[in-house]
Amino acid sequence: MKLDLNIDPRSLGKVAVLMGGSSAEREVSLTMSGPGVLKALRSQGVDAHGFDPSERPLQVLKDEGFERCFIALHGRHGEDGTVQGALELLGIPYTGSGVMASSIAIDKIMTKRLWLADGLPTPRYVKLKKSEISRENCMAIPDELGLPVFVKPPHEGSTIGSSKVEGYSQMQEAVELAARYDDEILCEEFIDGPELTCPVLGEGDTAVALPVVQIEAVGGNYDYQNKYFTDTTRYLTDTLSVELEREVRELTLAAYRSLGCRGWARADVMLRKRDNKPFLLEINTSPGMTSHSLVPVSAKAAGISYEQLCMWVLSQARLDGQVPSKQG
């Protein structure tokens, strides 16, 4: 894989690193991803400044002459198409996917529908609305999907509000937890096997998948705590055969293109232990950029440093309808 990593910082202009925001993932964005990206860009000579859209109106970006934005926001109002739409109206190019792809990818149920329509493998699921929560409906879900079941709010990330249900007695509690964060609840067939992730850089036919990362969390529980605040989770590359690595990368590229993503993103995949079949879980269009994050781990395996990754992603910032940069 070849990317043009020789980027003149002066060509990037005045840059706002959007961090914080108002989602349930505000803390990670404000204290980890955002500062990490800001430090990296400044170390490369970029005129970069932190900007929290929950504390200052986005119009300030236009008033103060910012020329592009690195979106280091996570979750709602950060990667769901809303801030992207506002930046479109302001005419300020931004990193990552456009309005439509962002709004689809944040919705795990809509994402699954599109993947299934395109013949891509994703775990079987049942959708519940808040108004449909009852003991009878909750108990019917394991009958349809089997046990274990994974229950999650479909518009949140970082496993917030998510539960692995091992028995019928846990089902209603898990659904009610997810309902605290969302008006819909996604109940998903549990795929038993290794958890993988695969980042993508670029757009359309020229997009490339980076090395697959296998996640090994203590007790197999890759939750919010183990994602961001412990050093016991292991992130491994080169664990798959050449053929299986290729298969997961090609599947990830197909999933990325199916949603119309651009710039960069990261797909989460489960590898079924009994037959090594990969299943798509979701795509993150504004991936984490913390010291524990998966895209930097994968990029490093491809010979790309954290700083180079940030610079390349920033160099691809654009508006919907603009011609993509030829860099890469």
TrEMBL record:
Q: Where are the transmembrane segments?
A: none
* Superkingdom as given in the UniProt entry: Bacteria
Residues annotated for Mg(2+) 1 binding in this entry: D268, E282
Q: Which pathway does it serve?
A: Cell wall biogenesis; peptidoglycan biosynthesis
| Chief location category | cytoplasm
Compartment(s): Cytoplasm
This protein's UniProt keywords = ATP-binding, Cell shape, Cell wall biogenesis/degradation, Cytoplasm, Ligase, Magnesium, Manganese, Metal-binding, Nucleotide-binding, Peptidoglycan synthesis
| A single GO cellular-component term on record | cytosol
Q: What is its EC number?
A: 6.3.2.4
- Catalytic activity reported: 2 D-alanine + ATP = D-alanyl-D-alanine + ADP + phosphate + H(+)
Give every ATP-grasp domain span: 112-315
Indicate whether Transmembrane appears among the record's keywords.
Answer: no
> Which cofactors does it use?
Mg(2+); Mn(2+)
Binding-site residues, Mg(2+) 2: E282, N284
Q: Which GO terms describe its biological process?
A: cell wall organization; peptidoglycan biosynthetic process; regulation of cell shape
User: What does this protein do, in the record's words?
Assistant: Cell wall formation.
What protein family is recorded?
Belongs to the D-alanine--D-alanine ligase family.
- Name of the protein: D-alanine--D-alanine ligase
